[in-house]
Design brief:
Blueprint lengths: L9 H30 L13 H4 L1 H9 L2 H4 L2 H25 L6 H31 L9 H18 L3 E8 L2 H8 L1 H18 L5 E6 L2 E7 L3 H17 L1 E3 L5 E3 L2 E7 L6 H17 L5 E3 L2
Parallel strand pairs: 6-7
Antiparallel strand pairs: 1-3, 1-6, 2-3, 4-5
Helix pairs in contact: 1-6, 5-6, 8-9
Length: 297
Amino acid sequence: MQQFDTPISTGEAREILNRLELLSLYHDDWISTFLRAVVCDEPLESTFIEENSHQTCRFGRWLEHDIHDALRQAPIVSDICLIHQRMHLAYRDLFLSWQAKRRISSAEYDEANVKKTAFHLSVSTLQFMIYDYLFQVDPLTKTLNRTKLLSTLERERNRICETGEQSTLAMIDIDHFKKINDTYGHVVGDAVLVQVALFLSTSLRPMDIIFRYGGEEFLVYLPGTGKKEAQAVLERVRANLFENRILLEGGQELQISASFGVSPLDPTAEIAVSVEKADQALYLAKNGGRNRVVWLD
């Protein structure tokens, strides 16, 4: 699901975006200072022309030491590290040529500017990814939200329409959730939602996609599964969830269960039709006594 290895909270995402904005402005100032030294024949601090200047500038120090762990291994960040280094080296070469009174060709100058543009584009790409993450992830459970649901399922419907692959939707509702809120309060209710989301993410297959559909409901997309496979997976998840205990403050344990409504993702129908079918199956599971998996063709 994620573009990043570990979850990022809403606050952390906004903090990263603010930091990137400030660091980008810093780099604009870095280049302005560099060009001023050349145009006005002024001295330039040695830190600008050291071979490791890409590591000692503010942006470089952020990349080396302060970047969020979720971003550290992201491919786009590896690209930024390389592009940032190349930009520094290109401007360093320009300055050393100017310092040595060697004529700088327009091609050399343009090449440095190309690297500067590539740097700005790569940072903008990272910012866009974080914005996308911020708006597609439920801030409480860190699962995808309904904003991302439609586009994801549309993409998957088109894919299975071409491949003929079977796929399944499961609507999951935490049983007696209102009673949990009324008895223990909304703080405990939120903790239950977080724990259930974490349980689902660790119990389902890596390729399965979890959405927070609303309130205490989650919708799970299981690609490559027909009726038999989906029921087997979800029955195991249901049973394990019921056996699981949520530890409350004071050492009290809370047992929870969930009802599962399951139906195929129909490649010939609108997404809303398939989701509604899973919701109808959930209704049958709730009316049938809860804590069960119900399939509806």
